[in-house]
UniProtKB/TrEMBL annotation:
It comes from Chryseobacterium elymi. Keywords: Signal. Pfam families: Por_Secre_tail. This is T9SS C-terminal target domain-containing protein. Residues 1-16 form the signal peptide. It comes from the Bacteria. The keyword Signal applies.
Length: 227
């Protein structure tokens, strides 16, 4: 096993690539960025991310660091996994997990939302404890709130009309960065700079997920019905 102990997360993303950049746990992984790229969607409509390259990035004298972030539906939590050293993830080691307020989101939480708990049984505590903003960075395709469709009425952010025929309007956001629309099977069907009006007239009738990213990579997600 080239990697028994692992951890480093920095999340930095581009709209097209849907990436997460992680930097942390320097005792095991050195002070370097690890780039996770979305590789697919699981059966529960959760995104799956793997380090790029999956095999080849040097890591703290432990060999090659190969990581994956994915949803564990049985335990209802996001997990940060390290491969045994050959890029197959057939017997990965659990480095961190986060089970706080993440059920409604397609992408994993940031290091400042909920608690990414260090699995010290694997790391021997060498990652310095749970992930925080002081011991790690995690940016990109992550969320930092638990806002779900059932909580829309509690927020100042609103989308309307819903159902919609032609144009969705967004209110309550002054620092929008991007908007993305996904089909329920996780396919990205539209991505563009933020605008308070989104033309959805070209979409087929059905249910979609609108993801709005604002400053500091915080994101909010809303389901809407296209008539």
């Amino acid at each position: 096993m080239r990697i028994l102990y692992l951890f480093a997360i920095a999340l930095g993303s581009t709209m097209a690539a849907q990436t997460i950049t992680f930097n942390g746990c320097h005792n095991l992984f050195d002070n370097q960025n690890f780039i996770f790229t979305k590789t697919g969607v699981d059966a529960f409509n959760k995104n799956i991310y793997m380090t790029t390259p999956v095999d080849g990035q040097p890591c703290g004298g432990l060999g090659t660091c190969e990581f994956k972030i994915q949803w564990n539906n049985t335990l209802t939590r996001w997990e940060f996994l390290a491969d045994e050293g050959n890029g197959t993830f057939t017997s990965p080691s659990l480095i961190y997990y986060n089970s706080t307020g993440n059920n409604a989101n397609m992408n994993p939480p940031s290091n400042t939302f909920g608690t990414w708990v260090e699995n010290s049984a694997v790391t021997s505590g060498q990652c310095g404890g749970n992930l925080t903003a002081t011991n790690s960075t995690m940016t990109g395709d992550v969320h930092s709130s638990s806002l779900g469709t059932s909580e829309v009425t509690k927020s100042k952010i609103q989308i309307f009309p819903n159902p919609v025929s032609d144009v969705i309007r967004i209110s309550g956001i002054d620092t929008g960065q991007t908007t993305q629309i996904y089909s329920l099977d996780g396919k990205l069907v539209r991505s563009e700079p933020f605008d308070q009006k989104i033309d959805v007239s070209h979409l087929s009738a059905g249910v979609y997920l609108l993801k709005i990213t604002i400053k500091n990579f915080e994101s909010h997600e809303f389901k809407f019905v296209k008539k």
